[in-house]
Design brief:
Elements (H helix, E strand, L loop, with lengths): L10 H15 L7 H17 L14
Amino acid sequence: MSRKATCLDNACMEGFFGHLKDEFYRGRRFDSFEQFRDELNAYIVYWNTGRYQVRLKGMTPVQ
């Protein structure tokens, strides 16, 4: 970690949590914690394997 107030230390995780809130959580209601947990796990699998990325020339990480 760098000195205090260096935002670049957390840039990757803050970007992920921003996408998570916008794409997965915002505007939704879950019936139970178990439903939330299961859908969150599915979203994380999608994030790591199925989302298209510009830096990969429009392919997914698995491709």
